[in-house]
Structures are given as structure tokens and as C-alpha cells.
């Protein structure tokens, strides 16, 4: 028998199989909550209960968000940057967890049997201190990168020609092959930005308000919670997107009601995951 035949087989192939195997090997049982796919509907119901308890501070908060979104829209038209309107509206979803901080505080106060004022919701005091603003800046940077990427995608398909206006670009997108190509690429790229922002922001901002923790740890834990509870997280993301699109169809007025509802519900999603 040859010497090489007597040598023990190394487990390199087994290690390689492990490195290319499925998603289950990246899961951590410590973070798996085994929540049903319908759990987000329960979070929405809990958010509704928080909204109708002391409703005026929540609705006033939503009105402030509506005014900010409306002012940003008007500014884009005044500056003749209307080509940024659609990316900017989509970018609201990226920074929404930061702007919903006051709603998280209200939900936490209600759970503790406390009353809260609009002033306390607008001027929150995170337990993690300035770490929440660092995370917020990162989310804003992701939003700005997405807006720049959207402009580049438009230029790749239509060149540097003048923007044809909202009516013209809508017709251009749905009646030309280049328009359909840009829609497909834009949706794919936008989904990557949205998925990344959702993973790092959806639970990190509530966590920074509720715990003394650094920003990087909070964002990392948020990603882990989303990854290990992918089903409910995707359902929750779909609900957020659907309600946000519905508010856009009302000319942003729906944000007055939808934004507080989703903010309160996100707090309960965080508590269920954490």
C-alpha cells in the first residue's frame, strides 16, 4: 500500500461545503424569535392602540412630518430640481426610523403607564446620547447616495438631456424600452439601498433610545435581528411600503396618520424582536 493511501483524509472538502452551504448556517438560534408571518399585523394593531391613546400628540407629530415632506417637495420645484422628486420621496423611507424617534418614546411611555407631551416627543433624550445622531447621519448619507445613484441611472439610460418634467418623464418611462429598462434597474438598485437601510435602521434607532449602547453595536444587532427573523421582517417591510405608497397617493396628506401609526407599530416590532 502506498504511503499516501495511509495518510488521513483532511476535512478541507467538508469545510468548503460548509462555506458555500445554505442560509441556515448563518442563523443564530439566540436571535430567532420564531414569530409567525402574521406577527406584523399584531404590531400594527398595537401601534393603532398607541395612536388612539393620547391621539393629538401623535397626529401633531405626523403633521410636522407632513409639513417637512411638503416643504422639501416645494423646495425641489423652486430650485428646479424636480428630477430628484421621486428619489427623494423614496428616500423618506430610509430616514424614517430617525424621524419616528418621538413616536417610539410615546409608545415606551404608554407601556410604562406615563403620559407624554408633544414637546417631549419632538425633543427626545436618547439613553445612548449622541449615538443616535451618528446613526441618523449614516441613514442620511445612505439617502443622499441613493438620490445620486438615481440621477446616474437616469443619465445612463437617457443621457444628459434636460429633464422633461413629471408628466413627460412618466410617459417616457412607460412607453419606451429605455424607460422600462431604467425602471427595472432603478427598482433593483433602490431595493438594495432600501434593504440595507431597513436592516441597519429599523431596530437600531429604537434600541439607542431605550438602551445605553453604541451606534455600531445597535446597527449590527438590528441587522442580526432582521436576518434571523427574515419572514416577519419582510412582511413588516412590505406593510410599511404599502402604507407609505398609499400616503403618497393622497398627496402626502396621509403621512399625518400613516407615519404615527407605523412609528408606534415599529416600537412594538422592536420589543418583539429584542
TrEMBL record:
Q: Does the keyword Nucleus apply?
A: no
Q: Does the keyword Transmembrane apply?
A: yes
> InterPro entries, per this entry?
DUF2189
Where, by residue number, does the polypeptide cross the bilayer? Answer: 59-77, 83-105, 132-160, 180-201, 213-230, 236-263
Q: Which UniProt keywords apply?
A: Membrane, Transmembrane, Transmembrane helix
What is this protein identified as?
A: DUF2189 domain-containing protein
Amino acid at each position: 500500500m502506498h504511503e499516501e493511501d495511509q495518510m488521513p483524509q483532511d476535512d478541507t472538502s467538508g469545510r468548503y461545503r460548509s462555506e458555500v452551504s445554505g442560509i441556515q448556517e448563518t442563523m443564530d438560534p439566540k436571535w430567532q424569535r420564531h414569530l409567525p408571518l402574521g406577527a406584523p399585523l399584531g404590531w400594527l394593531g398595537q401601534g393603532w392602540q398607541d395612536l388612539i391613546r393620547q391621539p393629538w400628540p401623535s397626529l401633531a407629530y405626523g403633521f410636522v412630518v407632513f409639513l417637512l415632506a411638503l416643504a422639501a417637495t416645494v423646495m425641489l420645484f423652486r430650485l428646479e430640481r424636480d428630477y430628484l422628486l421621486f428619489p427623494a420621496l423614496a428616500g423618506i423611507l430610509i430616514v424614517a426610523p430617525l424621524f419616528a424617534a418621538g413616536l417610539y418614546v410615546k409608545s415606551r411611555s404608554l407601556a410604562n403607564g406615563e403620559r407624554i407631551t408633544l414637546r417631549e416627543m419632538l425633543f427626545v433624550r436618547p439613553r445612548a446620547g449622541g449615538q443616535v445622531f451618528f446613526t441618523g447621519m449614516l441613514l442620511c448619507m445612505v439617502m443622499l447616495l441613493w438620490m445620486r445613484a438615481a440621477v446616474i441611472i437616469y443619465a445612463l439610460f437617457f443621457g444628459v438631456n434636460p429633464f422633461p418634467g413629471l408628466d413627460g418623464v412618466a410617459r417616457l418611462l412607460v412607453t419606451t424600452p429605455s424607460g422600462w429598462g431604467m425602471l427595472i434597474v432603478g427598482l433593483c438598485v433602490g431595493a438594495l439601498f432600501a434593504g440595507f437601510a431597513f436592516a441597519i435602521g429599523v431596530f437600531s434607532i429604537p434600541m439607542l433610545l431605550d438602551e445605553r449602547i453604541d451606534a455600531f453595536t445597535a446597527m449590527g444587532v438590528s441587522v442580526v435581528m432582521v436576518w434571523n427573523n427574515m419572514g416577519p421582517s419582510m412582511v413588516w417591510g412590505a406593510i410599511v411600503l404599502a402604507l407609505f405608497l398609499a400616503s403618497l397617493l393622497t398627496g402626502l396628506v396621509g403621512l399625518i396618520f400613516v407615519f404615527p401609526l407605523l412609528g408606534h407599530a415599529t416600537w412594538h416590532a422592536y420589543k418583539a424582536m429584542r
